[in-house]
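Batch manifest, entry 17 of 40.
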Amino acid sequence: MTTTRANRPVYLDNQATTACDPRVLAAMLPWFSEAYGNPHSAEHVMGRAAEQAVEAARAQVAALIGADPREIVFTSGATESNNIALKGAARFARSTGDARRRIVTVATEHKCVLACAADLAGEGFEPIVLPVGRDGLLDPAVLRAALDEPTLLVSVMAANNETGVVQDLSAQAAIARDAGALFHTDAAQAAGKIPLDVNAPRVDLLSISGHKLYGPKGVGALYVRRRPRVRLAPLFSGGGQERGLRSGTLPAPLIVGFGEACRLAAAEMAAEAAHLAALRDRLLARLRAAIPAIAINGDLRRRLPGNLNLTFPHATAEALMRAAPDLCVSTGSACSSAEVEPSYVLRALGLDADAAARTLRLGIGRFTSAADLDYAAEALIAAHAAAARVAA
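Output type: C-alpha cells
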C-alpha cells in the first residue's frame, strides 16, 4: 500500500495527542534559547521577563475557559491536575474535620480519575462509580440518586477520550451544587474544541492538558475556583510556587506555548469545529456506504466534532490496522502486561469483548485534510472487504 503526503502516514489519532501547531512552536523557541531566565528569579531582568511571559500565558489559558488568571495553577498535564483535584480536595476536607467521604465519578472516566478514586478508597473515602447508557451519557437521575448521601466531590469528564461523547455539564454541575458537593471535570479532550465556561455552569475544578489542543506535551493546568474558595491539599512539598498547590520551577517555554495554543483555540474554535464535523461526516458517509453494518459507539450529536468510534462487522481492529499500516489510529483497547484487553469504556457502553475488539477510534484534527480522509476511507474499506472474504 502506498502512502500519501510525501510518504508520511495519515494521522487519525488526535484524541491521543495533537501535533504542536507551528505558531505555538514559534512562540516557544525564544524561551528555550534566548530568554531562558527562571520565572521565579524576579530579582533580575531575565527572570522578570520569564515571569511576565508566564503570567501572560496564564491569562490566555484562563480566557479559554472564562476564568480569572489567579484561578489557573500550572501542572505537567491533566493527569497531575486530576490527581491534585481529587486527592487534594479529599485530603483537605479530611484535615478540617469534614465527615463527608463519598466521591462520585463515572465508569467511562479517564483511567487516572478512576485510579485516584481507588487510591482514596484506601484512605477511607467512598468512591461511587456510576454507569452510563449505551449512548455514553450519564443519566441526571442516576447522579441525583447517588448524591442522596452526603457527598464531597463529583467528577465527570467533559468529553470522553475514546468515544468523544460530550456530557451535559450544566445539568451535572447544578445537581452537584444543589447537593453541596464540589464539581470537577476533566476537560482535557474538550478544552479548545468545544466552548467551556467555568461560570455557566459553575465548575469548581477543571483539568486541561496542553498537548490535546495543539500545544506542547508536559504542561497543563488546573482551574481552582476562588469565589466561593475551593481549598486543596498539595500533593508534594517544595518552594511554594503556584499558590502552594504545585511547587517546582515552572517550565516557561512550555507554558508560553500552552498559552499560545489556548489563544489560537479561542480565536479559531467555532470555524475549526464546523470544518472538523464536516470532514467527520464525509468520512462516516464513505464508510457507511461501503460497510452498511458499521456501528457508531456513543451519541453522534453530543460528540466532539473530530471523533468517530466505530465497530466494524467482520474484522478486528488489529487486523484492520495490520492491513492499513499507513493509518495512525487507535484500537479502542488498552494494552496491559502485553495482553490486549477490551476497552473498559466500550464495555461500560454495553459492548461485549468481541465487539470491542472490532472497534477503532478515528480522531480528526486541525491538520487532517480531505485527501487524508479519502485515503483512510479507501484503506479501511479495502481492509474490511479482505477480512470479510476470509471470514466467509
